[in-house]
Design a protein that fits this description.
Blueprint (H helix, E strand, L loop, with lengths): L7 E5 L2 H4 L4 E3 L5 E7 L1 E2 L6 E5 L14 H12 L2 E12 L2 E13 L10 E8 L4 H10 L10 H10 L19 E4 L5 E5 L3 E4 L5 E4 L3 E5 L17 E5 H45 L20 E4 L19 H14 L6 H13 L2 E5 L6 H11 L13 E5 L8 H4 E4 L4 E4 L4 H9 L8 E6 L6 H4 L1 H6 L8 E3 L18 E3 L4 E7 L10 H4 L2 E5 L25 H5 L10 H18 L7 H12 L9 H13 L5 E2 H4 L11 H7 L7 H17 L1 E2 L1
Parallel strand pairs: 4-8, 8-9, 13-15, 16-23, 16-24, 17-20, 20-23
Antiparallel strand pairs: 1-3, 1-6, 2-3, 3-5, 6-7, 8-14, 9-10, 10-13, 11-12, 18-19, 21-22, 25-26
Helix pairs in contact: 6-8, 16-17, 17-20
C-alpha cells in the first residue's frame, strides 16, 4: 500500500506534551494546533500540525479576538478525535509533519487522556451494500472474493488473497487479529494471525493455523469505527486489544495441546491394532479385521470456533515492562524475534547489546540468512525506536552497500558547482544524520545499519568515519563539503558543511564472508566488535514461545541508554590486562603487524565492565568472546607466519597463553577458532 494512504488517529495535544502552546493563531491568521498521535505500536509519541481551516465542520470567526477563537476551537474539539493522513514537508531545513484528509469522530466510551489505539483491519462480505457504495464513491476497489465468515476463514487457512485495505499499512503494523463484519454490522475478532503481508499486486495475505472468533459486541462502544468514512479500519483501545490477543493466543495453545493428545491417542490405537493383527496372523487366523481405522485427528485444526468463555492465560509468557533495565531489553528482543519467527540464543542478545553499548562500530558476521539484519530490526524495536523504514521520522536506517562504492561521495554525496547545490547520496544517510543532530532529536536514539558492508572496500567509502568514531563525544564532526561553500549553496540550510555525530547515533554493519566480498583491513578490525551469530540447531533449539500481549514498548532515550553505561573497572582488570599483554607479545613475535593495541585493551575492559548480570552470558564466556571478536579476527596469513601461534606450545603459541590464564576463562570459542585456523593452514597453507 502507498504509505501516503496510511491513516492515523490522534487527539488535540496538551500544553505539556508538545513542549509549546498547543493552539495559537499563526501569521496567516489561521488557527494552528498540535495533535498527538495515538496509534500504536509506532509513532505513539509523535506530534503533527493541524490547521483550523482544513476542518470542514468547524466555523472560525476570524474577527473575534485570539483568545475567543482558541476557546471556541477547544470547545469544538473537546469530545472529538482526529483521523488523518500525514504529509511531510521540509521548511527551512526542518521536517514539518502536518495532517491532511482530516476526519473528525466522537470520542468512544471510556476514553481518557491516556487511551491509545491499535489499528485493526476490518473485512466483510463482497456483497455488503454499504461497502460497495463506499468503493464506488471512493473509487477504490477492495477486491473481496468471499461471501461469508466461513469462506473468509477458509481463505486465511490456505493463504489466499483477501483483497486490499484502505488506510492501513500491514508492513508497519502486522495485526495479532483482524475483524469480520457481518451483514447486520456485528463485529467478530478473528485470530490468532501468525503472519501478515502484502503480495506483489498489493493484496493482503494473512496466515493462521488455528483460527477462533470472539464476538465484539460488549467492546464495540469503546472502538472508533466510522464505516461510512473508512470500512477497512477500526481503532481498538490498547487494553481491549491486548485482552483479545491473549484470549486468542490461549485458545491456540489449548488447540495445540488437544491436537498433540489426539495424535498420541491415534498413534497408540494404531499400534494396538497392528499388534492385534500380528497376533491373529501368528495364530493362523486370516479373518478381516472389523475395526475401522482410527481417524487421524492430528491433521485437523480448529477453524472458526467461537470463544464464549474466558480462557486461562497462565501459560502465556509475560514480560514486565514497567521498569527500564537491560533484562527488559533482552526480553523484548526475544518477544520481537519470536514475532518475526527468528531464533537466537539469549547470549547473542546480551553480547550484541553490550557491544553496541560500548563500541563505536559493531559488525555482525556469518553465513547469509542467519538473521543478522533481522537482529538489528529486533534490537531497534526492543528499544522502542520508530523502526519503520517508510516513515520520515524513522529512527533506524538500513543502508544497502553497493559494490561500486569507491569513496565517501558514494555514501555522503557531493557539491554540484554548476547549480550550487549539495546532492546528498540516495542512501538517505546524510538526511538521517542531519535529523539526528537536531536539538529536538538529541535525546532520541538512532541506529544506522550498513547491509553487506564488505561488498565494497570499507576503507574507501567509510574512510572519514574510521577517524571520526575514535574521537570523544562533542568532537565527532563529519565534513560534507569545504567550508568555503558555506552560505553559497542554495540548500546550505538543509545540509550544513559539518554534521555533528552525537552519542545518540549507533553504527552497525552486517557482512557475509564469501567470494563476492572484501576482507576487512586491520584498521577496520581495530575499531570494531566483530560478532558471529550462532546458528541454532533447527531440530531442537527452534522453540516457539507464546507471549502475552505486551503493553506499550518502553521508549529508550539517549539519556536512558547512557545510564546503562558503567564507568568503573572490573575487579580483575589487572589480570585481564596481563592476559592481553601476553597475547599481544605472542602475536608480535609472529609479525609486527599483529597485536592487541591499547585501543583494543580499553575496549575489552569497557565491554567486560558493562556486561549485564545475566546468566545467559557470564564473565568467563564474555572474555572468551572479546578475545575472538577483538583480537583473533586479525590473525590471518600464510603458514610460515601464523603457524607458531596455532601450535600447542613454543614461542608465539596462543594456546599456551590461554592455558596459563584458565582461571579467567576456559576460552572454548578461542580454542575452537584457533583449531579452525590450524585446519585451514594445514589444508591451504593460509588462514583467514
Amino acid at each position: 500500500m502507498n504509505k501516503n494512504y496510511r491513516e492515523y488517529i490522534g487527539r488535540l495535544a496538551r500544553y505539556d506534551q508538545s513542549g509549546r502552546s498547543s493552539i495559537f493563531i499563526n501569521r496567516m491568521n489561521i488557527i494552528q494546533y498540535n495533535v498527538k498521535t495515538l496509534l500504536l505500536p509506532d509513532a505513539a509519541t509523535s506530534f503533527v500540525t493541524g490547521f483550523g481551516n482544513l476542518l470542514s465542520d468547524f466555523s472560525d470567526d476570524i474577527y473575534a479576538g485570539d483568545d475567543a477563537r482558541i476557546d471556541n476551537f477547544e470547545a469544538f474539539m473537546e469530545n472529538q478525535l482526529f483521523i488523518f493522513k500525514v504529509q511531510t514537508k521540509n521548511v527551512n531545513g526542518m521536517e514539518v509533519r502536518s495532517m491532511t484528509d482530516v476526519h473528525l469522530v466522537p470520542v468512544p466510551k471510556s476514553f481518557d487522556q491516556s487511551t491509545e489505539f491499535y489499528a485493526v483491519p476490518v473485512f466483510c462480505s463482497k456483497n455488503d451494500e454499504e461497502v460497495r457504495d463506499w468503493e464506488y464513491n471512493k473509487s477504490w476497489n477492495l477486491y473481496r472474493n468471499y461471501d461469508t465468515r466461513a469462506e473468509f476463514l477458509a481463505d486465511i487457512k490456505v493463504g489466499e488473497q483477501l483483497g486490499s485495505l484502505y488506510g492501513y499499512d500491514i508492513e508497519s503494523s502486522a495485526p495479532a487479529f483482524v475483524l469480520w463484519r457481518d451483514a447486520d454490522g456485528k463485529l467478530f475478532a478473528v485470530g490468532s494471525i501468525e503472519s501478515a503481508e502484502t503480495d506483489p499486486v498489493g493484496a493482503c495475505v494473512l496466515q493462521g493455523k488455528y483460527l477462533f472468533t470472539i464476538d465484539m459486541s460488549e467492546y464495540i462502544e469503546n472502538f472508533v469505527y466510522d464505516d461510512s468514512y473508512n470500512p477497512c479500519v477500526s481503532y481498538v483501545p490498547a487494553d481491549i486489544y491486548r485482552k483479545i490477543d491473549n484470549q486468542l493466543k490461549s485458545a491456540v495453545l489449548q488447540a495445540e495441546k488437544d491436537e498433540e493428545e489426539a495424535r498420541q491417542k491415534a498413534a497408540a490405537e494404531r499400534a494396538a491394532a497392528e499388534a492385534a493383527l500380528r497376533e491373529a496372523e501368528a495364530a493362523g487366523r486370516r479373518e478381516e479385521s472389523a475395526a475401522e481405522e482410527t481417524e487421524d485427528t492430528a491433521s485437523q485444526s480448529a477453524v472458526g470456533q467461537e470463544l464464549k468463555e474466558q480462557l486461562d492465560e497462565t501459560e502465556l509468557e509475560k514480560i514486565a515492562t514497567t521498569e527500564k533495565n537491560e533484562a527488559l531489553i533482552f526480553d523484548m528482543m526475544e518477544y520481537y524475534a519470536q514475532k518475526s519467527r527468528c531464533y537466537y540464543k539469549r547470549s547473542d542478545f546480551v553480547n550484541f547489546h553490550t557491544a553496541v553499548k560500548c563500541s563505536d562500530l559493531v559488525i555482525l558476521s556469518g553465513l547469509s540468512g542467519t538473521g543478522k539484519s533481522s537482529l538489528v530490526n529486533v534490537y531497534a524495536k526492543a528499544l522502542g525506536l520508530n523502526a519503520s523504514a517508510d516513515l520520515e521520522d524513522s529512527q533506524m536506517l538500513m543502508v544497502p552497500v553497493r559494490p561500486s562504492w569507491s569513496d565517501d561521495a558514494d555514501l555522503l554525496g557531493y557539491v554540484d558547482l554548476a547549480h550550487m547545490v549539495y546532492h546528498a547520496a540516495d542512501s538517505g544517510f546524510v538526511d538521517f544524520l542531519v535529523r539526528a543532530q537536531r536539538e529536538e532529536n538529541k535525546n532520541k536514539l538512532f541506529l544506522v545499519c550498513f547491509e553487506e558492508m564488505n561488498l565494497a572496500r570499507v576503507e574507501h567509502y567509510f574512510s572519514q568515519f574510521l577517524s571520526i568514531l575514535e574521537r570523544p563525544a562533542g568532537q565527532r564532526e563529519l565534513q560534507l563539503y569545504d567550508k568555503q561553500y558555506m552560505g553559497k549553496l542554495y540548500n546550505a540550510a538543509d545540509y550544513p558543511f559539518q554534521i555533528e555525530i552525537g552519542n545518540n547515533v549507533k553504527f552497525i554493519g552486517t557482512v557475509n564472508i564469501d567470494e563476492t566480498t572484501h576482507h576487512f583491513s586491520d584498521k577496520v578490525l581495530d575499531r570494531a566488535n566483530v560478532i558471529e551469530l550462532e546458528v541454532l540447531n533447527y531440530a531442537t533449539e527452534w522453540q516457539d514461545k507464546t507471549f502475552a500481549a505486551v503493553g506499550k514498548t518502553q521508549i529508550w532515550s539517549t539519556q536512558d541508554y547512557e545510564k546503562l553505561i558503567v564507568k568503573e573497572q572490573i575487579p580483575n582488570a589487572r589480570e585481564v590486562r596481563s592476559l592481553l599483554w601476553e597475547v599481544h607479545c605472542a602475536l608480535q613475535s609472529l609479525s609486527p603487524k599483529y597485536g592487541a593495541g591499547p585501543r583494543v585493551v580499553k575496549n575489552v575492559l569497557k565491554y567486560l565492565s558493562n556486561l549485564p548480570k545475566e546468566e545467559a552470558l557470564d564473565f568467563d564466556r564474555a572474555l572468551d568472546l572479546q578475545l575472538v571478536q577483538r583480537v583473533l579476527t586479525k590473525l590471518r596469513g600464510v603458514e610460515s607466519v601464523v603457524g607458531p601461534a596455532l601450535q600447542e606450545n613454543g614461542e608465539g603459541s596462543l594456546l599456551a597463553v590461554l592455558d596459563k590464564y584458565q582461571s579467567l576463562s576456559q576460552f572454548a570459542k578461542s580454542r575452537a577458532l584457533l583449531a579452525q585456523k590450524k585446519k585451514e593452514v594445514e589444508s591451504y597453507g593460509y588462514c583467514n
